[in-house]
Design brief:
Blueprint lengths: L7 H13 L2 H6 L2 E6 L2 E7 L13 H20 L3 E10 L7 E11 L3 E12 L2 E14 L2 H7 L3
Helix pairs in contact: 1-3
Length: 152
């Protein structure tokens, strides 16, 4: 959080609380590594449950990180709840190594739709290798719509 953006602290707290309630984050073992206005970094450590038959991170793990990181990054812009509308994911190279890191950044923070880019890296022997890139459209919700979307 930036000292030049004191209004972001309550937004960050609310986002971290909401992410903490996502069961799938816990199932996958992902964590919010960094959070700032317009950006989100998620990371997950290598575990056998996250690998496909060749010992690489499953593409679904990459897709999940992109889906969640882009939505979280969009939510940081104005503190609005957000849902993924669509994303285009390009897998660039096999994701091996000890950790996957997804860095998402808002390109255009719209009131109704935000455009967010993301890049995914795997960490091999301490070095990052670019494994995927994505562009997402994120639907920005008002508080009433967010309450309709979530169970009471």
């Amino acid at each position: 959080m930036s000292e030049t953006d004191p209004d972001f602290a309550p937004i960050a707290t609310r986002i971290r609380d909401n992410v903490g309630r996502q069961g799938f984050m816990g199932l996958v073992g992902a964590e919010v590594a960094e959070l700032a206005r317009g950006t989100c970094t998620l990371a997950v450590d290598r575990r056998p449950e996250l690998l496909q038959q060749h010992g690489l991170f499953h593409g679904g793990v990459t897709a999940f990180l992109v889906d969640n990181a882009t939505t979280i990054a969009a939510a940081t812009s104005r503190g609005q709840p957000a849902l993924t509308a669509e994303y285009k994911l390009n897998l660039l190279s096999p994701a091996s190594g000890d950790r996957l890191i997804c860095r998402a950044r808002v390109i255009k923070p719209g009131r109704q739709v935000a455009v967010v880019a993301a890049d995914v890296f795997c960490v091999i022997d301490g070095k990052e290798k670019h494994t995927a890139t994505a562009l997402a459209s994120i639907a920005m919700l008002d508080d009433q719509a967010a309450r309709i979307q979530s169970p009471a």
